[in-house]
Write a structure and sequence with these properties.
Distance between the termini of chain B: 49 Å
Membrane topology (chain B): Peripheral membrane protein
Largest sheet of chain B: 6 strands, mixed
Keywords (chain B): ATP-binding, Cell membrane, Membrane, Nucleotide-binding, Repeat, Translocase, Transport
Shape of chain B: globular
Pfam families (chain B): ABC_tran
Strand content of chain A: 5-15%
Helix content of chain A: 55-70%
Distance between the termini of chain A: 74 Å
Subcellular location (chain B): Cell membrane
CATH architecture of the largest domain in chain B: 3-Layer(aba) Sandwich
CATH class of the largest domain in chain B: Alpha Beta
Radius of gyration of chain B: 24 Å
Shape of chain A: globular
Protein name (chain B): Sugar ABC transporter ATP-binding protein
Number of strands of chain B: 24
CATH architecture of the largest domain in chain A: Orthogonal Bundle
Oligomer: heterodimer
Number of helices of chain B: 18
CATH superfamily of the largest domain in chain B: P-loop containing nucleotide triphosphate hydrolases
CATH topology of the largest domain in chain A: ABC transporter involved in vitamin B12 uptake, BtuC
Number of domains of chain B: 3
Helix content of chain B: 25-40%
Chain lengths: 640, 510
């Protein structure tokens, strides 16, 4: 009898909350598919991995409930983190003051957003889009493009309590409770529902709508700042490029949680569930070693399914929230059908995971955490690594961090949970990878750093090309081609990345030896071909007399070639970096004068060889240099 | 069984929503060339019935036949195929498209895949001619007044070759002249053989226009009667009991001045408005639509700015354009546009009732929700709001109950002067009387009411004094004793400024 009523109550809760159903289905499916999922340690990891998105999403919940939108939260989080690191790293500033200043930064951004919307009459979308750009820009300005490492005292914020309870999880729970309190009990929270539901009715009921909306955006900024502090503390460093695109994750979490973008509806618990769904999904896909490309497809599908489930529930139950037991059978059937669809989606994910045959327990598994796979260089590095793993008969579990240091920390954690024997880490950022690598070390998993080093954690070996030397060689090649005099432009990579810093430094050192050459322009194009094209076009507009171009990677160099049109090759010499297949083809065609070729396949191959050796307990060299070579039309045939 | 001229028959239709049985056995039929009036209180089930005929809802039981054949209407497209067109209370027109495009939306005549504007506009002009509106087909719908919007809706229905035209309270938003025009068009359609389902709360319109009446009460069709049935009998059928007095005003002695408006002017909208409202008084504001009554009321309440003049409440001069200040001085406003400005539709009854008192129920930024809930329960009981629970969403309530919630939030705030703007528009007879009793309670307790209304019998029946506005000015003031329909209308059509204002008014309307 009681068991029966309890079961019925549970079914009601699940039917009344589509997102919760989706979370339960996901959790059950993942525990069946992976033995590593349902462990205390892994669940705490999921909590840590959800924390930043959840805290951002709590802030966005206020905005969405009051029928607004906040696109700036990711940038504001990065800016607050940068301010925290910058002030904490200055002498004589105590940690608490640095944290306070970071929070004040978020509040300030929120104030500006709110003022623009409430008193400037800007649509929230535009005002916060502007802040997205301004916040990101300011954090680059303050940090001068480089990550700022934390003093030890600040990193403790991202640590654990009592050795097992992670502080980020505590912060998430505390901010969640605060959100629930504000939404349910506070004057401003109740006002948010009224404003979001019917702004004119709220105004005519005496609510000071403009002032209240200002406060809503201030709250959102405050929460973004807290998220930024958690993010940076966990990584032990603040990156100007952190939390890119997190605003979309936050909005997705809020909507998955049952809020309406039209305003007036939304709950703290729903938002938490939304953030957990995203984190559980990413964690599970890592554990299952699903192909990095398919992961994004699966995540998109599950987001759509979760919201569909909730929408179906709403349609079926219009006005039924307070009437129990009258639901028609059709509604149950529909909910069940959609739950089934979610299961099917998970089955697809499982099937995908089988494409990477990893089931035989006898084989050694090696993890590979790549900074990105949207750049041919790293795609080739993965290809080399996979080829080597095949020939050595080991399993390779690849994760793609999408150039996000925080996501990489999650993935290193997940690889650790999945019990790999050794791990290759190609850090998005050298400082930020350290805490997660230290955890791996604690679990006795040797870590090989690839392409970039990890600072502040022990690695067995560093396998890298020498970027600084490459930059110097590029300078020499370009200068000699130009006969020691000319006007040149530099296309810089993504500000704040180590590749851009090192190549830029090497090039600057090298070019300084040729006083006849003048660098007339130096602008970032983010390692991106399309941006390279745009930036080069603008530079030519400003100075048509440019005779040489150095691009910090081949993609941008190819963009520059496009911008130069028939002038590429002669009279304008373009030198790229990386020696990607496209780049080499252009060298062969003569439009690209030279490329400083790294050998990404070789890099991947050597990294795997070292990782397997480390897994067997063999000692290797601390540093393995993969040679860098200048490729011109003369020797391009050797490289194909 | 079915007569040859029968267009539509509904038999024993039932429809339940979770928690509510909306229809519980409704019979109804419609013949060619008749106006069949559907009469019933708000919430009786009229809307559910017409939504069923237009494809928005499907019946749980019972059958619908069209021309003797049983049909299933699953979507708006199905309804269209059967020749059933509906004109809803909320118009379904796209404001920024032209009249012609709206009429043919989704069915624009095409030539080589491109829209044939010339043909579309000629066809639209013919239809507009048929409904007697002289509007160029290229006019943007946004520029039209409410009466013309309705005519465009009718033209759209005609373009679909509708044999059944359902009109949901078409006269609620029209002035009496516009109502006459609408009736002329409806009569012409009837002569053309169209069957018309007509919903109205104005009993006098039944005899003027209708042929038969079906009365719906509590989800059942309780009677079918000829349109010539005496109004009192119809009311008895509709409410299920006698309503002894439609306007139960109990006047008392007016006391101290609570609201004093002097020389209030907003250029181009209202001019030199001066009046006083005393404790215990109901002051009615009559006038044609567009006379500036709503705009004046919003300015007094601080919702809109004004250029010159003063507003004093209980002896305190109020700052312009400051709603919280007006509220603090004891003024409340129940706005004209109920759906758009009254309740927060997706919030609960309790939350809506507590909206005005949210600030005063807060300590240190936190709202005392249990106390708010108790207060909401008390006021909902006093107002007789029909709701399953205080947590029910206001959207699911009938119009009359929604209005009670909007009034209720002001009663909780202990308002001294309540401005009611069209308080009973779209509200049924029973709920109307309940609202009037509330007005009596307020004035008996020494409060005052300023009531704007286009419903002349209501203004005459409930006011102690009547201000008549015309073209943004006060054209005159009548005591309850001297006020008659004729006296009010005479003032309402005068030109108080006696300048060229009338010209601009007309050109704006065109």
């Amino acid at each position: 009898m009681t068991a029966d009523t309890a079961a019925r109550a549970l079914r009601r809760v699940l039917l009344d909350n589509g997102a919760l159903t989706a979370l339960v289905v996901l959790t059950v499916a993942l525990s069946l598919l992976s033995d590593d999922f349902l462990t205390t340690r892994n669940l705490l990891n999921v909590g840590v991995q959800a924390a930043v998105t959840a805290v951002l999403a709590f802030g966005v919940t206020f905005v969405v409930v009051s029928a607004g939108i906040d696109l700036s939260v990711g940038s504001v989080a990065a800016l607050s983190a940068t301010v925290l690191a910058w002030t904490a790293a200055s002498d004589g500033v105590p940690v608490w003051l640095a944290v306070l200043l970071a929070i004040a930064t978020g509040v300030g951004c929120g104030l500006v957003n709110g003022a623009l919307i409430s008193y400037g009459g800007l649509p929230p979308f535009i005002a916060t889009l502007a802040m997205l750009s301004v916040g990101r820009g300011l954090s680059l300005v303050i940090s001068q493009g480089s990550p700022i490492a934390f003093p030890e005292s600040v990193s403790r914020i991202g640590d654990t309590l009592g050795g097992w309870l992670p502080v980020p999880v505590l912060v998430m729970v505390a901010m969640g409770l605060l959100t629930a309190l504000i939404l349910n009990r506070a004057y401003i929270g109740r006002a948010m529902y009224a404003i979001g539901g019917n702004e004119e009715a709220a105004r005519l009921s005496g609510l000071r709508v403009a002032r209240l909306k200002l406060l809503v955006y201030v709250l959102s900024g405050l929460f973004a700042a807290v998220a930024g502090v958690v993010l940076a503390a966990r990584l032990g460093s603040a990156q100007p490029q952190a939390a890119q695109g997190y605003e979309l994750d936050a909005i997705a979490a809020v909507v998955i949680g049952g809020a309406s973008l039209a305003g007036g509806v939304g709950k703290a618990s729903g938002t938490l569930i939304g953030a957990l769904i995203l984190a559980v999904l990413r964690n599970g896909l890592n554990l299952l070693s699903v192909s990095a490309f398919w992961q994004q497809v699966v995540i998109g599908v599950v987001i759509a399914l979760a919201v569909l489930l909730d929408a179906a529930r709403r349609r079926a139950g219009t006005g039924a929230a307070d009437v129990a037991g009258t639901g028609s059978g059709g509604r149950r059937k529909k909910a069940a059908g959609l739950a089934l669809a979610a299961v099917v989606a998970m089955a697809v994910a499982a099937a995908l995971s089988l494409w990477n045959p990893h089931t035989s327990g006898a084989r050694t598994t090696v993890g590979l955490s790549l900074s990105t796979l949207s750049n041919p260089f790293f795609v080739q590095m993965r290809a080399g690594a996979e080829a080597e793993a095949d020939s050595l008969g080991v399993e390779l579990n690849v994760a793609d961090a999408q150039n996000d240091a925080s996501r990489q920390a999650d993935q290193i954690q997940n690889l650790t949970s999945a019990g790999v024997r050794s791990m290759i880490v190609n850090p998005v950022d050298s400082d930020a990878a350290a805490p997660a690598v230290r955890d791996a070390n604690k679990a006795d998993i040797p870590v090989i750093a690839a392409d970039r080093g990890v600072s502040g954690a022990a690695t067995a070996t560093l396998v890298a090309s020498d970027n600084v030397a490459g930059g110097r060689q590029a300078a020499k090649t370009l200068a000699e081609k130009l006969g020691g005099s000319g006007r040149i432009a530099v296309l810089q990579g993504t500000a704040g990345t180590s590749a851009s810093r090192e190549r830029g430094r090497g090039f600057a050192e090298g070019i300084a030896e040729y006083p006849g050459i003048e660098v007339v322009a130096s602008q970032p194009a983010d390692f991106d071909r399309a941006k390279g094209l745009d930036v080069m076009t603008n530079m030519l507009q400003a100075d048509p007399g440019i005779t040489g171009v150095f691009a910090e990677n081949d993609e941008m160099a190819l963009g520059a070639v496009k911008a130069l049109g028939s002038r590429a090759g002669s009279p304008v010499a373009v030198v790229g970096f990386d020696g990607t297949p496209d780049g080499l083809q252009a060298v062969e065609a003569g439009t690209l004068y030279a490329s400083v070729a790294q050998q990404p396949r070789e890099l991947g191959r050597i990294a795997v060889r070292n990782a397997v050796a480390a897994a067997r307990g063999e000692k290797a060299a601390d540093l393995v240099k993969v040679p860098v070579k200048v490729v011109t039309a003369e020797n391009v045939a050797e490289f194909g | 069984m079915s007569a040859p001229d029968e267009l539509l028959r509904v038999e024993g239709v039932r429809k339940a929503f979770p928690g509510v049985v909306a229809l519980d056995g409704v019979d109804f039929d419609l013949r060619r060339g008749e106006v069949h009036v559907l009469l019933g209180e708000n919430g009786a089930g009229k809307s559910t019935l017409i939504k069923m005929l237009s494809g928005a809802h499907r019946p749980d039981a019972g059958r619908i036949t069209a021309g003797g054949r049983e049909v299933r209407i699953r979507s708006a497209q199905d309804a269209e195929r059967l020749g059933i067109a509906t004109i809803h209370q909320e118009f379904t027109l796209v404001p920024d498209l032209s009249v012609a495009e709206n009429i043919f939306l989704g069915r624009q005549p095409r030539r080589f895949g491109m829209i044939d504007r010339a043909r579309m506009e000629t066809a639209a002009a013919e239809l507009l001619e048929r409904v007697g509106v002289a509007v160029p087909p290229r006019t943007a719908v946004r520029e039209l007044g409410v009466a013309r919007l309705q005519m465009v809706e009718i033209a759209k229905a005609l373009s679909l070759d509708a044999r059944v035209l359902i009109m949901d309270e078409p006269t609620a938003v029209l002035t009496s002249e516009e109502v006459e025009k609408l009736f002329a068009i409806v009569r012409r359609l009837r002569e053309d053989g169209v069957g018309i389902v007509f919903i109205t709360h104005h009993l006098e319109e039944i005899a003027a226009l209708g042929d038969r009446v079906t009365v719906i009460r509590d989800g059942r069709s309780v009677a079918q009667a000829p349109a010539s049935t005496p109004e009192d009998d119809l009311v008895r059928l509709m409410v299920g009991r006698d309503i002894d007095q439609r306007y139960p005003r109990e006047s008392g002695e007016p006391g101290a001045v609570l609201l004093s408006v002097d020389g209030l002017t907003r250029e181009g909208v209202f001019h030199d408005i001066s009046f006083e409202v005393r404790s215990g008084e109901v002051v009615g504001v009559a006038g044609l639509v567009g006379a500036g009554r709503t705009e004046m009321a919003r300015a007094v309440f601080g919702a809109d700015p004004y250029d010159t003049g003063t507003v004093e409440a209980c002896g305190v001069r109020l700052p312009a354009h400051d709603v919280p200040a007006a509220m603090a001085a004891g003024i409340g406003l129940v706005p004209e546009d109920r759906k758009g400005q009254g309740p927060v539709l997706d919030a609960s009854v309790a939350d809506n009732l507590g909206l005005v008192t949210l600030r005063s129920a807060s300590r240190a930024g936190l709202v005392d929700r249990p106390a708010q809930h108790t207060a909401a329960g008390r006021i909902a009981g006093r107002l007789g709001v029909r709701t399953a629970s205080l947590e029910q969403r206001v959207r699911t309530l009938s119009g009359g109950n929604q209005q009670k919630v909007v009034i209720g939030k002001w009663l909780l705030a202990d308002v001294r002067v309540l401005i009611l703007d069209e308080p009973t528009r779209g509200v049924d007879v029973g709920a109307k009387v309940e609202i009037y009793r509330l007005v009596n309670e307020l004035t008996a307790a020494g409060h005052a009411v300023l009531m704007i209304s286009s419903d002349l019998p209501e203004v005459l029946g409930m006011s102690d004094r009547i201000l008549v506005m015309a073209q943004g000015r006060i054209a005159g003031e009548l005591t309850a004793a001297e006020a008659t329909q004729d006296a009010v209308m005479t003032l309402a059509v005068t030109d108080p400024a006696a300048t060229g204002n009338r010209e601009t008014e007309e050109s704006r309307d065109r």
